[in-house]
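Render this sequence as a predicted structure.
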Amino acid sequence: MNQKAEAIRAKRLLEIESSRYGLDDRTKLSASFFDYFDQLTDEKASGSKSNHSIWISTRHHLHRLPLAKTVL
């Protein structure tokens, strides 16, 4: 599992360095998964209440993870 995670991380770093997707390196490096997830959660508010509640609960649990404060 750890080997696969490292392979994914290496691939993402390569994408950042090569700017294959037209994004500035700083954009991806400074991007926050939690900001992105919070944005998605807010967008789910217009859908069903139970679905939005699941997103809120997931966000809560993700923020509580010890790795949530770790930066790659």
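Summary. The radius of gyration is 15 Å. The mean pLDDT is 76.
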